[in-house]
User: Fold this.
Amino acid sequence: MDSRRLNPVWIAAVAAALLLGVLAGAASGIADRLFGDGPNPKTIATASLESMRAQNRLIAFVARYVSVTSSRTSRFGLSSERTLILPGDVRYEVDLSKLQPKDVTWDADSKTLRVRLPEIEIAGPDVDLNAAREYGAGGVLSALTDSEDRLDQANRAAAVSDLRKQASAEVPMRLARQAARAAIERSFAMPLHAAGFADAKVAVRFPTEGTDEPSYLDLSTPYEEAIKEAERRRASEGKK
Assistant:
């Protein structure tokens, strides 16, 4: 996994955009209609929620993985083996449009805004065929049969599956959740602090946290589509 693909600047920009949306609403007179005599944490959180839902999706984390797979076949007493090195990018996203008012609650006693996020969604992998490398020769068997093509197809399917498995491992999932929590906490905290609630805290969690069975939505691209999309991208780049 290449953790350098994490983009904290982008996440901070999303948080700033949400804050500007809430403050712009206040400046235009919306705040007066929402808050009456003055702002309160609940109505500020409601305005932040609507602004956040409008952002649709948050890409909390992006990572690159590399899969190394080998396939071997034997026929007529002959053997053939091929090895594929295939990199691919995976996105960890949060569908903000799924946030509902019931997911955002204000605890006046502890001055804490509690937010329950929809679970992280894994999108991809977007395989990079330009950086793929295939090794091995089938010798006589490849000359007599289509074993080399079949081995390459088997390697590609296995590589995409392996990339998905790497992406769903405990460490990257934890990093993705941490990045998403940090972005959402800032997005809700900044308007509260700007409105004068300096003591307000924001606590964000995912539905599966605290359970033994982590569950998340997998938006992984099917193997055939992942390869075709990479081939289309490579062909498009070759025409430039």
Notes: Helices lie at 8-27, 30-35, 41-54, 139-144, 147-167, 170-194, 223-239. Residues 3-239 form one domain. The mean pLDDT is 77.
